[in-house]
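Re: your question about Ionotropic glutamate receptor C-terminal domain-containing protein

S., sorry for the slow reply, the queue was backed up all week. Below is exactly what I fed in.
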Amino acid sequence: MLMFYSANIVALIQSPSTKIQTLDDLLTSRLKAGAEDTVYNRYYFQHQTEPIRKALYERKIRNKDGTENFLPLAQGVEAIRQGYYAFHVEVGVCYKLISETFQEEEKCGLQELEYLKMIDPYYAVRKNSSFREPVRVTLFKLREFGIQGRENALLYTKKPRCIGGSSFVPVSIVDVWPALVTLGWGYLLTISLLIFELLWLRFNITTSCERKINPTRRPLTRDP
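Result:
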C-alpha cells in the first residue's frame, strides 16, 4: 500500500550546470531524449495534451521516420553515461543501476526534471463508513512517524552522492563558441592597437626626421 509510482527525467550534463531547470529548457536544448520501454510510459507520452509535454514527445521521443526512443533500462542508462541524453525512467531502479556502473565523477553531473506530476494514491472507503476517520488518522501517522519514508527508502534507491573528483570530458564547438568569440574580438582589438601604435611611431619618426633636415630658420638681426 505504501508503494507509489514516481518517474522523473534523469539527464547527465557533461559539466555541472543549472541551465536546464524546466521541461521547456529541455525542449529547447540540444540534448537527445528517450524513455524506458514500458506500457505506461508509452501511454503517458502518446496521450499527453499539455503543450510542452506533447512537444517533448513529438520532437524528442518520436523520430522523423516514425520510430520512437523507448529503450530498455540498461541501454537508456548507458546513453545517459555517454552524455547529452535525457532518459525518462523510474528513479529507484535507475539510480541503483547508476550506482553500480557510473564512475564517481560521472555521478556529479546527474540532474532531475519532473515529467509526471504524480501524487500518492487515494484510499477508498464506503460513504458514511465509520472507518473513514481511523483510516485517515492512521495514514497521517504513517507519514508523521516516518514509516512511509522508511519503506520508500527501502524500496527506492536514492540519488548517488557526488563524492568528488573530476575528469576531462569532450565538448563540441557550440559549447565553447562564446569563449571563442570573446577571444577573437580580443585578438582583433589587440592587432588593431598594435597597428595604430606602429603607425603612430612611424609618424613620429618621420616628423622628427623632417625637423632635423629642415630646421626652423630664425631671422637675422643686426646688433646696434
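The beta strands are 7-12, 32-36, 70-71, 85-90, 110-114. The two ends are 127 Å apart (CA to CA).

Happy to talk it through on Thursday.
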